[in-house]
Amino acid sequence: MQALPRLGMGTWRMGERSRDRAAEVAALRLGLDLGMALVDTAEMYGEGGAEEVVGEAIRGRRDEVFVVTKFYPQHASRRALPAACEASLGRLAVESIDLYLLHWRAAVPFAETVGVLERLVRDGKIRRWGVSNLDAPEMDELSRVAGGTRVAADQVLYNLERRGIEFDLLPWCARREVAVMAYSPLDEGALLRHRALHAVATRLGATPAQVAIAWLLLRPGVTVIPKASSLEHVRENASSANIVLDA
Ligand SMILES: NC(=O)c1ccc[n+]([C@@H]2O[C@H](COP(=O)([O-])OP(=O)(O)OC[C@H]3O[C@@H](n4cnc5c(N)ncnc54)[C@H](OP(=O)(O)O)[C@@H]3O)[C@@H](O)[C@H]2O)c1
């Protein structure tokens, strides 16, 4: 199975206003041109609008991009999940989703959700599945249901200021080769005002965003998905992989 690209692009808050659409599509296309070969979205973002933006951005270049989307917990049931998946496939205009994530814990039992996800894999609708916002005890619980050990990723909050997952979830995932997707790598932009980050960035001739992303890229098995709608931000983020940080 193909490993997840290490650096991708987020899309939260895209697809909300039609007047921003062309700029959002352009930002994602530029990111693909610059090698950020994964796009993360969700049926929640812009209530389907972000998936449509992604669909437009990847049109004609499906083979270059690893597509991740997420379903609402209220769609995690045997009855609702197949229809939610079809709707996402339609908005994304793809035949198959590379990674399909439960957005956060549902009231539906894991066994039921995993059963449907495994069927979606068999039917070719998704290539693999994962979760988001689950902690280590919840991952333990998930891996005890039939098929649960096939969880491919957990997408969680992780950045220089929010390092809680290092205590248990990160080692849990590393032991089982479950990918960690670090969301809000710039803490939604708030991290970029941090003085220490500015000092390091100045020393390296880089920007604070590049240092924050490069720090996450040092962690094996972690995929980083900064969101940027400005072309300048996309260019900066794409070159984060070139920043060399020492311990
Ligand atoms: N699974 C979940 O529950 C969950 C939760 C949150 C996020 N996510 C995913 O993770 C992605 C990233 O997280 P996020 O959107 O919360 O926040 P983020 O990526 O930490 O930060 C995004 C903000 O930083 C700005 N930015 C980006 N690159 C920059 C740069 N080089 N210099 C200065 N500012 C820069 C963006 O501005 P512009 O847009 O103006 O360029 C935007 O305001 C989301 O888009 C989403 O796909 C998942």
Note down, in words, how this protein is organized:
By secondary structure, this protein is of the alpha/beta class. The protein has one domain (18-189, 220-241): Alpha-Beta Barrel (TIM Barrel). Helices cover 37% and strands 12% of the residues. The chain contains nine helices and seven strands, in the order αβαβαβαβαβαβααβα. It has helices spanning 21-33, 49-58, 81-92, 110-122, 136-143, 169-176, 195-204, 208-217, 231-238; strands at residues 38-40, 66-71, 99-102, 129-132, 153-157, 179-183, 222-224. It has a seven-stranded parallel β-sheet with strand order 1-2-3-4-5-6-7. Helix 5 links the parallel strand 4 (129-132) and strand 5. Helix 1 (21-33) packs parallel to helix 9 and helix 7 packs across helix 8 (208-217). The longest helix is centred in the N-terminal third of the chain and has 13 residues, at 21-33. The two termini are 31 Å apart. The model has no long low-confidence stretch (mean pLDDT 97). The structure holds NADP nicotinamide-adenine-dinucleotide phosphate. NADP nicotinamide-adenine-dinucleotide phosphate binds at residues 10-12, 40, 132-133, 155, 183-189, 192, 207, 209, 225-230, 233, 236-237. NADP nicotinamide-adenine-dinucleotide phosphate (NAP) is lined by residues 10-12, 40, 132-133, 155, 183-189, 192, 207, 209, 225-230, 233, 236-237.
CATH superfamily: NADP-dependent oxidoreductase domain
| Beta content | 5-15%
Secondary-structure element string = HEHEHEHEHEHEHHEH
The average pLDDT value, as a whole number, equals: 97
Spans of 5+ residues with little confidence (pLDDT < 50)? none
Distance between the termini: 31 Å
Shape: globular
Total of domains: 1
- Main sheet properties: 7 strands, parallel
Q: Please, how many helices?
A: 9
Using DSSP, what is the number of strands?
Answer: 7
What is the helix fraction of residues, given as a range? 25-40%
Secondary structure class reads alpha/beta
Task: Calculate Rg over CA atoms.
Answer: 18 Å
In the sheet with the most strands, the strands line up as 1-2-3-4-5-6-7
CATH class, named: Alpha Beta
Enumerate the distinct ligands: NADP nicotinamide-adenine-dinucleotide phosphate
The fold-level CATH name is TIM Barrel
The CATH architecture can be named as Alpha-Beta Barrel
